[in-house]
Amino acid sequence: MTKSLYLCYTSLCRFPPTNLENDTTVLVFDFGGGTLDIAIVNLKKQVGIDKLHPHQTIAKERITLGGEELTRLFFINSFCSNQKYGTKRICTEFGFQKDLTANQLWEKLSACEDGVRFIAAVERCKCELSRTQRYRFSFVARNIQLEEKTFYRDDFDNAIDSKLEEIDALIERCLQNGNISDPYDIDHVILAGGSSLIPAVQHLLIDRFGSMKVTAKIGKPDTFVKELKHNRIPESEVLTSIVRGLAMIGCKNETLIDDVVDSDYGIWDGVENHFIPIISKGMRVKDTTLIKSSQQGMMEEFECLEQNVHSVEALVYQRNLSGEQMLGRINIVNPGGKKYRIFMSVDKKKGMLTVSFYDVVKHRWIDEIPLNQRQYTLK
């Protein structure tokens, strides 16, 4: 019979917080069309513009949020308000039933040709309000005529207020994870991605870090990032905000790019029904490297307490903001009464998580399990 692993484990000590006293500390704020990445990076004193010393990423956070979601909120909270057009008026013009909610109306618009054009006009309005204080909006199509109305920057800011609070909370969480209690310990704030140009977003950053810190603005696409993205980086690797930020301040050698782990990785205890982390989010990737000769690496020790089982399953799990997700199952044959060390290592260049097993009783690595059965693509 096969059972989920019954576990007794001993936690290993984790790495201590990074000392920031002599480093230049940079916060990279990468806010694009679909995601917001925040990273805090320690940089050594720079020698020249074309030479960048290796750095250390001390904290990184990500949420699914971008310009598309802000456009949707602008439509729902402003265009659909009675002070502007209202849902009934928009439904009437587009020939939809009049009792649709604002969210239902957005879905209907997204599914028809004129609706897609209308959403594009809302997007233009949003972008113009990043440059000006007001914008005169109107929309005309076949059998559709929405008269001109003036939208102000405050209309947009108020419409996305809940998301601004979410962004502020994400910044705070990233600071806490980086062991930074005072935002003024951040020396520079680097902005990347089109949504970072939204004035309300920049005001939020300036309020936290000061106007002199938020100085790196993007005016055109970064060719270095494009080169990395299209020619040098495999599809399995995520182009992180760290790469974007370092590219803007003069990093010409992507081999210097270090990273931190984006999620917790570990084993699921099927008996106690809880997640046991082996690699923790925020650790340096290079610190997860496994050295088999000395058994150095990130691991937990487990014991199979049942004597009469033919095999057990090690359930490999990932944990992030979306919750816990199983990556796969690995069978261990003839485990009765044995102790095992389960090691996990991350390779960001290959975009892989590798799981390795060591038999404590027989003092050997369990190499019978094929590599392709214990490697997982990072999600």
Secondary-structure topology with pairs:
Elements: E1 2-4, E2 24-31, E3 36-43, E4 56-63, H1 67-79, H2 87-94, H3 102-110, H4 113-128, E5 134-141, E6 144-152, H5 153-159, H6 161-177, E7 188-192, H7 199-209, E8 214-216, H8 223-232, H9 241-248, E9 264-269, E10 274-279, E11 298-303, E12 311-320, E13 323-333, E14 339-347, E15 352-359, E16 364-365, E17 375-377
Parallel strand pairs: 1-12, 2-7, 7-8
Antiparallel strand pairs: 2-3, 3-4, 5-6, 9-10, 9-12, 11-14, 12-13, 14-15, 15-16, 15-17
Helix pairs in contact: 1-4, 1-5, 3-4
Number of helices: 9
Helix content: 25-40%
Q: Report low-confidence residues grouped into runs of 5 or more.
A: 1-22, 46-53, 216-245, 247-258
Mean pLDDT: 77
User: Which class best fits the helix and strand makeup?
Assistant: alpha+beta
* Beta-strand proportion: 25-35%
Largest sheet: 5 strands, mixed
- Overall morphology: elongated
Distance between the termini: 31 Å
Oligomeric status of the shown chains? single chain
Number of strands: 17
Q: Spell the H/E element sequence.
A: EEEEHHHHEEHHEHEHHEEEEEEEEE
Radius of gyration, whole Å? 25 Å
Tag the structure with descriptive keywords.
single chain, 379 residues, alpha+beta, five-stranded mixed beta sheet, 26% helix, disordered N terminus
